[in-house]
């Protein structure tokens, strides 16, 4: 909260906070919790440099629902983790905000494209770019609203095709290296929807994946990241999305950081009014995990393609409806092909349960069914069963 | 729906475990439960003696069983001795004869030391305990196979009383017991509300369970499974928690059932249970007891005493005949019983229900008695109407109508014939298999009922297996390619069973005959060649012609309907199989299911869907069968509908129809309707009756034209849907192996688009096919469209596929069966109507519209004479088909010798807003 406060007179700031409080009253329970646990973290003084020039009047409401990398040490760690020598130094940063990570990245020699959805930060970021020698390209865009699947008009919206053309990013074929690394914090708002969007994008090879195996380095909350990496060994966290993530990407946990490094309130100066925290709300007080998602080279095969991936999605979802059920029971709802035949073909035990199947097994299952030659009808799935916007 | 499937799977296993020759439901009416019976026998039963003789073969279990029986007797000493014998048995090693062992032991025991005696005693105790356990399990086993008759009472005093009566020899006469029971009956009609069920949801669930149980019991009565109902009631009664859920109507249901059979003992048991539950008998309970007395021909004194008791309880004898929903036969028996005690008794005449008049000021004129009632007469003579009634009656008795499709028949290629043959073979096999599967399901449900659960068993007995099979195969036939939600399918199946059952019951009772007589009398009011003395509205006349019998068929609770339907759907899924490759000869192949449970994920909701195998859909398409089956209530009526007299009676002759259409399960509306005083509904009832009495016929010329286009390529512009062959097809070109992702995505989109369009076209086509086929079916008939309304009072025709509500095409197909001469201004109104239909002169005055019509008379006549080949002026109108029909009508009127005398059947809209029925010219 302190960043915008710098440009605001205390008299002006007060009503703004009051407004936010009023809006968020119903969440006061959660906020109370947050306050309690907050005491465990000694407030750190955030770096001042670079933020002095921030324009006044950044709307608070927008700021409050977002998280930014605010600790320079974290920024350095992330920069180090990202820029290991794998031949790609082009980094796309999502919502850099105050630009602390941007600075660290630039200083470690990366080329950075900053997609900032909040206009208020843009002049500041641009000046940062100039200061550090022109390797920064700032754009006013929301990364998570690129190429909306519903084709609705959402502002600020940019077509990734135009964007990438403008940036001069070359297309690399799927089997080649990584054209681009994306770094940022995964939004908590509409998290599920966003996850599905990313997954649809990669499986259908659209949006940013048109340009090759774009690597994502995103901060997820701890629970979600545990789920992403779950497999039969931790069955409680294992669910359909775990499979879809792991089939598409090589999922790697790079770093765990306590939430306080991102939280505006805990970074802010002591004298701030306590109720302002009520609006910084909702973020569950847990660690954020930096997850590296590198698309698998062999994601697409003769069987699983960007044309039929929705069947794979449906299959996985259906299987996880009853996680403790047997695969053989699910198969009757998936495919008209005899379940025993499929299992035999897959060389699986007939008593295998969903919860015991690794993500690769699901892909194998899909390919087995897709492969079966002597059946005209391989799936019971029908387009209308999923509200996928194509 | 896999959950359901798994559940069934487990049940299926259970089924496999049952012995094959399991006895069916046995009703030991008049005998007591097995074990109790044994107990009463003397200990020295002959069979036991036998068993002792061939001791070597006897198994331990049997021995113990025999001993257990002996234990029941008082000869303890003897048993003790034998106990030893049993305990020693394993050691006996078979070398010694048992008799010898016994004798030896007996002899030895006398001389043994006290230590030995103690040990012996211990062993005895152990054995005794074991035996008790065994006895309990045996008892349980026994109970499983018999229906319980004797109740287990929770009130100890009462239980003792019952025991005394049971064992008293000779038994005191039952009517004495009854009198005694009634005397001490608690003065409480229903239990005070339990406070445990405070939560709204749990209360709703609790009520649903009660309703479920009650309707189970009632249904058992219908299908003559009274002992089973009794068994379930006794089971529930014997557990305190379940007993709380039992209500007076449940006990009364059983009382009535036993009374009809004249089984006093069971009747008395129920009375015992009622008393035990703390419920006071009400009028219906008394009526049941009295009926039972009547059937058993009791002496007058007993009945007199009984009636006295009734009077003491504050119940009027007269009320027995007026306030109770009893059938005629019941009432006759009751009257006989009462007459025996009071020979001069006269049952009160039922009050005329039309005595009350609607008091709404808006309807004052309509219901005022000074003016004769106005209602439309039919244009047909009495005899014709009578004939029509017979036709409609036979249609409804048959429950389904088979209609020929209007689609052009496919050329009978080898392929088509082969497909039809395959389909026929499959159906024949399925019919047999489904019958078998239904029997198994019934057995399973019966088993569940024996365990005390209100299962589906009686409902499955309502219709024969053959009928149920037909219902299921019909559902399979019309299942769309993309499947249907299991819930709606189940609901539809369940409702159909209910409707069939109602129709069937009416057929079995003499209701049909009564209906016919009443209807024929009623027709005097409507027919063109008859007069009635008193001028009344159709409903009033109908009510005056007889008392309306209380409808005995309350609609089933929704949960039940769905459960029943789901059960049938499950049988269908499990049973209906086809060879995995339909093209090859059948017997060598593996069979695969035709129906599959699949899930649809729609924005975080999961919907269970029943989907047919695509190969089966293809087979149906190839076979292109020419007939369609409709339920009788989906087709317009062939005679004037019954006038609406209550929320449940009216419209179709036999098929149940609701006055107010509502979402299934919204019972609050129905309850409000039922609670409404009859007179307040008169306005709605009479309005609907009036709408339903309008006779219609098909406009044949328009139908012919539509059919030509329909069987060519259709014409979406004119509202005639195209056949599937006209659907857009995705480009055929194969994707190159190294196609770019963009190309693939594009292909995916195109595929999806084509599929979507094809689906929409298919559903439109099917809708039109039903409509046109029905129109064709009714082409030379006069028919009526019974109406009902929704909760806002909007009226709708009941037959869903073919009616006057809907698109331009739908309206153009219909005209009034009764024609009227146009009169001096009729032609002008026709012309104005035509201009209205074109939508060309929306802002002009009527005069200007008329002038415009005269201006374009050439076009009108051309349209009428050469609709397809001419200038096709009509096709550009807003409502082309109605415009065309109007053109034809104008042409005929203009060319008639005198337009004013021309008899027109053409419907002309007057005020067109939200008004379902166009008014006659």
From TrEMBL, chain B:
GO cellular component terms attached to this protein's record: mitochondrial DNA-directed RNA polymerase complex
Keyword annotations of the record = Coiled coil, DNA-directed RNA polymerase, Nucleotidyltransferase, Transcription, Transferase, Transit peptide
Q: Which residues does the annotated region (Disordered) include?
A: 720-743
Which ranges does the UniProt record give for the PPR repeats?
247-281
**Domain DNA-directed RNA polymerase N-terminal, which positions?**
390-693
> Do you know which Pfam families this protein is assigned to?
RNA_pol (PF00940), RPOL_N (PF14700)
Q: Which residues form a coiled coil?
A: 117-144
Q: Which GO terms describe its biological process?
A: mitochondrial transcription
* Catalysis performed (reactions): RNA(n) + a ribonucleoside 5'-triphosphate = RNA(n+1) + diphosphate
Similarity annotation: Belongs to the phage and mitochondrial RNA polymerase family.
Q: What is this protein called?
A: DNA-directed RNA polymerase
